[in-house]
Write a structure and sequence with these properties.
Blueprint (H helix, E strand, L loop, with lengths): L3 E4 L6 H8 L3 H10 L19 E4 L3 H11 L5 E2 L5 E16 L2 E19 L2 E16 L1 H11 L7 E6 L5 E4 L2 H15 L7 H13 L4 H5 L2 H6 L6 E2 L6 E9 L7 E13 L2 E10 L5 H10 L1 H4 L6 E11 L4 E14 L2 E14 L4
Antiparallel strand pairs: 1-2, 3-9, 4-5, 4-15, 5-6, 6-7, 7-8, 10-11, 11-12, 12-13, 13-14, 14-15
Length: 356
């Protein structure tokens, strides 16, 4: 591999070199130290050794400076996937199901993840360790059931995922670990389980989901939000752009597919990039939902079908580190005025590695 060099000038400091080349100090230090001899290493205080003639850099000076110009361009945004040292995200998940004017399910759950992203050759891998999963609020009549069902999250407390270059999920690396965790959980649950049809279905569902977990993860809104297709070059800023239609799995029509129109706007404020999406149901593409409503729900609810779904989604990224700082998603779906479902997620970076 060809090693590129930046020759140190008398007035240079390590931080000024990183700034000049548009690189993060910790990334430049790691690259230099990994490609140089011990007496040439940059130590913890980032002081340049007086005998050091040059810094080893990941590309030529000209290319790095050009990349920096692109990075800070006011005419486009380039979001490039990068490695991320261990960071902690707090997730607040709110669900509210309204039927005939009554809140049937009303809950708020807090989840804390430790997350890091590594690169091996040309592939990125995301690693999630769930530190906690706590139901903060739920109606008392559902609490015992919710706490019982929470046990079924245990096999997913650690996920190692291969990612596409754009950021979404490609494959699951630790499937065997997940299956083993499920088998242990299933044995531990045996004393609590009866022999009802519902319990048999739960165990059979667990056997299927934790033997082939990738579809389960890809169809889960939280993982879709966290690993979304976002790493692109965006050339049209500050205006909504129409995108291809996409599918959503209905929460009030027994997992029926809903076709949504979608648009996106990208904004920039200094190092912070905001990516906003807005989706809504396409009335011309979802006629099957009307048929289901009129057949199964209209007599009970005693009101006409008036389906709508809106989904607002916003990301904040640090463009220098390509690190997500915030994701806020709100999905409201209703079949009629008396039957609606709200799902809201707020994912926020709450702690980073001291070098991040």
């Amino acid at each position: 591999m060809e090693l590129h060099k930046y020759y140190i000038k008398r007035t240079d400091t390590f931080s000024s070199i990183a700034q000049e080349l548009g690189l993060i100090i910790s990334e430049l230090k790691e690259f230099h130290n990994n490609n140089s001899r011990p007496h040439e290493w940059i130590k913890g205080d980032n002081t340049l050794p007086t005998w050091l003639e040059y810094i080893i850099i990941p590309d030529s000076v000209d290319i790095l400076k050009k990349n920096k110009e692109d990075l800070f361009s006011t005419e486009k945004v380039i979001l490039i996937q990068k490695e991320i040292e261990k960071s902690q995200y707090t997730i607040l998940q709110t669900i509210d199901l309204q039927v005939a004017g009554s809140s049937m399910i009303d809950s708020e759950t807090e989840i804390i993840w430790d997350f890091n992203k590594t690169k091996k050759e040309n592939y990125f891998y995301g690693d999630i360790i769930q530190k906690s999963h706590q139901v903060k609020y739920i109606k008392s009549i559902y609490r015992q059931f919710a706490e019982y069902m929470q046990k079924f999250n245990k096999p997913l407390e650690h996920l190692n995922i291969e990612l596409f270059p754009e950021g979404n999920i490609k494959s699951l690396i630790n499937q065997d670990e997940i299956k083993q965790a499920w088998n242990v959980l299933k044995e531990n649950l045996k004393p609590e389980l009866g022999n009802t049809f519902e319990e048999k279905n739960m165990i059979e569902g667990g056997d299927n989901d934790f033997s082939n977990t990738l579809p389960l993860i890809k169809n889960n809104v939280l993982y879709t939000l966290f690993f979304n297709d976002l790493f692109y070059e965006y050339s049209e800023l500050n205006t909504f752009i129409e995108l291809d239609k996409h599918e959503y799995i209905s929460q009030i029509f027994a997992n029926e597919k809903v076709i949504l129109s979608k648009k996106r706007k990208v904004e920039r404020e200094g190092n912070i990039v905001k990516i906003k999406f807005y989706s809504e149901s396409d009335s011309d593409k979802n006629g099957h939902l009307r048929e289901i409503y009129n057949t199964k729900l209209k007599d009970f609810l005693q009101e006409p079908y008036s389906y709508s779904l809106t989904w607002s989604l916003e990301y904040h990224f640090d463009v220098l580190q390509s690190k997500m700082l915030l994701c806020h998603s709100k999905i409201k779906e209703q079949a009629s005025a008396k039957y609606s479902h709200l799902t809201e997620h707020k994912i926020e970076l709450t702690k980073i590695n001291k070098n991040g």
